[in-house]
Amino acid sequence: MEGVSDAYPLCDFAAESISPATSLQFDLSNAGICSKKAGKTKQVEQVISFGPQVKPGEIVFGVAHIYASSNDTFIHVTDLTGRETIVRITGGMRVKADRDENSPYASMLASQDVVKRCLELGINALHIKIRAMGGTRTKSPSQGGQAAIRALARAGIKIGRIEDVTPIPTDSTRKKGGRRGRRL
User: Fold this and answer.
1) Fewer CB within 10 A of the terminal residue: the chain, N end or C end?
2) 66 to each of 110, 119, 142, how far by Cα in Å?
3) What's 17's DSSP letter?
4) DSSP letter assigned to residue 48
5) Spatial separation of the C-alpha atoms in residues 123 and 37, rounded to whole Å
6) Is residue 109 within 8 Å of residue 154, measured between CB atoms?
7) How far apart are CA 26 and CA 31, in angstroms?
8) CA 90 – CA 14 distance, rounded (Å)
9) 157: left (phi over 0), alpha (psi -120 to 50) or beta
């Protein structure tokens, strides 16, 4: 069995002491390092923390993208660049009935869940970007948007800037409904 130590460079046993009839037992608990001893090893538990590395008392900002349409309210928190999603919860995830998805109550429940997750990850301040449907549809956010902002502020999150990012066209395509409008 020549060349065994060449094939297993991490093992610290001698190649001469192995015969073909010998059965080998390896303790692989040391991340790939083989040893003859089957002694007890201390396992160190690593604490995994997600989110930014923060010092106590430091203000860490995220961005809350709130989309308040007439059917639902989305609260999507990202990092400052907008690339990394931290938490995304809608009003429809918090209530059972479809008619309640855009209600202020559903928005408040969603905001409370968002705050809980943000504080777990060390984000304690938010810039808010609120958006309505825009385009040829309504340009003002629905009732759930304001309730979401109020619930975020009441739950202990510091509010940075509030910005309306509703897409407003300079000149747009024709609005739906036809020449005589929607007839009931």
Assistant:
1) C
2) 11, 18, 11
3) G
4) P
5) 47
6) no
7) 12
8) 62
9) beta
* CA geometry: angle 152, 155, 158, nearest 5 deg: 65
CA atoms in the 13 A half-sphere facing the CB of 155: 23
Distance, CA of 107 to CA of 75 (rounded, Å):
8
C-alpha–C-alpha distance, residues 71 and 142, integer Å: 9
Furthest C-alpha separation in the chain: 96
Radius of gyration for the chain, computed over Cα atoms and rounded to the nearest angstrom: 29
Return the exposure string of 77-116: e unless at least 16 CB atoms fall within 10 Å of the residue's CB, then b.
Answer: bbbeeeeeebbebbbbebbeeeeebbbbebbbbbbbebbe
| Interatomic CA distance for residues 147 and 102, integer angstroms | 10
The SS3 assignment for 109 reads helix
With beta carbons less than 8 A apart as the criterion, state whether 108 and 36 touch: no
d(CA 79, CA 39): 46
Q: Which residue has the tokens 């390092």?
A: 33
